[in-house]
Each structure stands twice: as C-alpha cells, then as structure tokens.
Amino acid sequence: MTKPRDYTKLMSELSAEYAQHSPQSAALNQRAKERMLDGGSHSLRLIKPFPPRMVSARGAYITDEDGHRLLDFWQGHYTNVLGHNPAVITDALARAFADGFGLQAGFTDRLQIEVAELICQRTGAERLRFTTSGALATMNAILLARAFTGREMVIKVGGGWHGGQPWALKGVYFANGAEPWLVETLGLPVALTNQVVVSRYNDCEMLRDYFRQYGDRAACFIVEPFMGSGGFMPATGEFIRTARALCDQYGVVMILDEVISGFRFRAGDLGSTFGIQPDLATFAKVLGGGMPVAAVAGRAEIMRLCGREGGSKVRFPGGTYSGHPASMLAAKTLITYLIAHEAEIYPRLAELGARTRQTVEAAFAAEGIFVRCTGYTNEVVRGNSFVVPQFPYDEKQPLASPDEVNDPAICDAELRDHVFQVAMLLEDTHVVHGGGSLSIAHTEADIAAFGEACQRVARRLKPYL
C-alpha cells in the first residue's frame, strides 16, 4: 500500500496565508461558530480552515466579504446550468413578486400542473409528486418501492450519494478494509442498515451475483446513471441495461437517482439515453433553476400508493414547501428555456467540460505532475460538463468507479479534496471535490485562467509529492 503523504506543514502554510487573504471571512467564521455547529448548515460548504462568505453571485463568479471575485465551479451544488442568478429566471421572479405572487401561500396553482406536465413529457414518467430536496425524494422513492413489493432490502452501489436519509447513509465513503463501505452515521438501527447491500459501480458480474443472493428479498436497486460525489463518472450502457434486466427478472423496483444528472445532460432525464425506463426516478438540483424543487416520478401503479386512489398507504405528503410558488415559477422558466435552447446549451456545456479537463491535465503535466480528470464520456454519455482532477499514484490505473478514486492506496484523495481546495482559494478559484461543473456562463478565458491557477498551485505542491 502506498504510504499517505504528509501535508501537515503545507496545510499550515496555506491556512495562514488564507487567513491573511480573507480576514473578513475568517472573522465571520468565528462569529458563525458561536451559534452554528461548525459555522454553518451544510458540511460541503464549510471548507477548512473556513469558507469564503458570499455577498453576491453572477454568472461564473461569486464575490466574497473581502471583495474577492472568485471563479466558481461549485455552482450551487452543481445546480446552475445557466450560471449564478441568470436574468431569465431572476427577472421572472422579480415580476412575480412585484405582482403579489411568489411567497408561500399554502394553495395549489396552475404552475404545479404545468411543471409536472413538462417533467413527465421530458422523462417518460406517468405520475409525480413534488418535494423540496433530493434526500427527501430518494427516501420516498425507497418507501414506495418497499410498499409496492412488500420487501425490505435495498441494493445500491458503493460511493453513491442519495442524500442524508436512512437507507442512503451506508456505502458512501470508502473505508479501505474487508468491508470497504461503512455506515456513515450513528443513530441508525442495525436492522435497517443490514437491509442495505452495497455493490460496485459498473461491475455487472458483482451485480448479477448480488441479485442471485438477494433479488427475491430486494425491494429496489437505486443507482445514479452518472455518479456524483463518488467521482463524476457515467455508468456504462452494459451496467444500466444489466440492472434493468435483473430488476425485471426478480421483480425489483429500479430507481434512477437523477438528482444531479436530470436536465444536466439534456432537457430531460439521462436514463432515456441508455434506452431504458426506470420504475421510479428522482429529480432535484438543476430542476429548480436555483430554487428548492425536487420530485419523485415514475410508474403510475407505484406512485399511486402515496395518493388517495391507492389508499395513501405511503406517507409522502410532500412537505410544507413542496410546490412553492416561486420555486415552481423558477422550474417552469428554466425547463422551458432549456427545451427551447437544448441544441445550443448542451453541446456548449459538453465542449466546455472537455476543454476544462484537457486544460487541467496539461497544466499539471507542465510541472511534471500526473493528473487524470474524471468526467470523461463513454459510449452512451457523449457530453459531460463535469471535471475532477484525480491524483493516482500509478498512471496506468483505471478510474472507473468510486472504489478507485477514493481508495487512498490508489489516489491521493486528501490532496484532491482538501489541500488543492485551499490552494485554489488563494488563486481566487472555488472548487469542491477538487473540481466541479461548468455552466454556459463560463468562458474560454475562465478556463484558461483556471488552467493557469492550476499550474501555479502545481508548482507549490511539487515539493510535497
């Protein structure tokens, strides 16, 4: 096993420089920690030693409390296909607020119908129900699957993140042991976590074996057709088609988690590009155009279990803010825009993603450091707007699953996730998981600047590698 590199001295230097670089954000972090755990309410935003505190965001950039203009690849948790606060959405919201529409009213309206129709038309779903987060969507999809089948077990893949909900908090983070995927939280009953079986991404033979063992007890198989936090890599066509066939064979509900991939690769779902229709799918992020919108969508006979016609057997009311007026307006505005401009937006996103991956790899290579980005396409997913620089110890090592990019014996995850992030903040560039997503607001000049920043950081990293 490769011995982990020691970045203690470097991180100390970077942290001290960053404190001088961003004193207002540093002071606000101390103030925040007096009332909020760790200084905030979402762990990925709470960068160590402290996060930049935003005051405005537009296009590809945010401005922080210290007046720095940061080139941003986080883009609202990979939500903002059009960039931060695009006028097409903010103008529509401003008009609505001025006309007395937009805040929570507790009523249904025309917009919910129109957004539901658009989503079903673009994804092949028969029915849907709105909620407010991807985690709630995946949790309720699993509840529906368990109720529909009368079974308890859940099969997922290692590294897949399906939100902070009971069946999702196992098999996310790599543990490098006999059981490489652990339960990530205290408080869950063992009886529940024992019902979650963790297979391997893009490994058809392991999936077949798991279905042979557990198929007659499994309620659902949940998978991302494009892996998010597990490394930004697409599923192979063989893997998704194998999963569909196995689910049919064993009567298992197939759930595609499209919280990240939905409306990111086309103006609709990604699953259809694999030539399959899932039984259920979950959507969020891009769907809301920067506002909180999520949905569970799928076969009517499964979805009806949470409605009156099915006896409301699954308690999925949606939540107070489901179908929120401003959120529905943002969703309708964005989806309509994406459909109208699909032929322009998605090829552009794919081009920007490809160029950024090439630029990052070349920048590190110029300093004698091997980096391979994940985010490349395959035989099904032809264009991809995501990029993550990986630091494998062996240049010949394939990087096709979360096991490989998160195993410390294969890749330097500490460098990718923490050291590189702080070093890039000193270059007024914001990345998460080492990289992020492109929006159509990013330009060739932004990509060139990103590459130059990577090269300066590479020079600084070189003595420690």
Query: Ends: how far apart?
Result: 16 Å
- Order of strands across the biggest sheet? 4-14-13-12-9-5-8
Helix content: 25-40%
What average pLDDT do the residues reach? Answer: 96
Structural class: alpha/beta
CATH topology of the largest domain, anyone?
Answer: Aspartate Aminotransferase, domain 2
- Global Rg: 22 Å
Shape: globular
CATH class of the largest domain: Alpha Beta
| The CATH H-level homologous superfamily of the largest domain | Type I PLP-dependent aspartate aminotransferase-like (Major domain)
Number of H/I helices: 15
Tally the structural domains.
2
Strand content: 15-25%
Total E-strand runs: 18
The biggest sheet amounts to:
7 strands, mixed
Layout of helices and strands, plus pairs?
Blueprint: H1 8-21, H2 23-33, E1 54-58, E2 61-64, E3 69-72, H3 75-78, H4 87-98, H5 110-123, E4 127-131, H6 134-149, E5 153-157, E6 170-174, E7 181-183, H7 190-193, E8 196-199, H8 204-214, E9 218-223, E10 226-227, E11 233-234, H9 237-250, E12 253-258, E13 280-283, E14 294-298, H10 300-303, H11 325-340, H12 342-365, E15 372-374, E16 386-390, H13 402-406, H14 413-425, E17 429-430, E18 436-437, H15 444-461
Parallel strand pairs: 3-17, 5-8, 5-9, 9-12, 12-13
Antiparallel strand pairs: 1-2, 2-3, 4-14, 6-7, 10-11, 13-14, 15-16, 16-18
Helix pairs in contact: 1-14, 4-11, 5-11, 8-9, 12-15
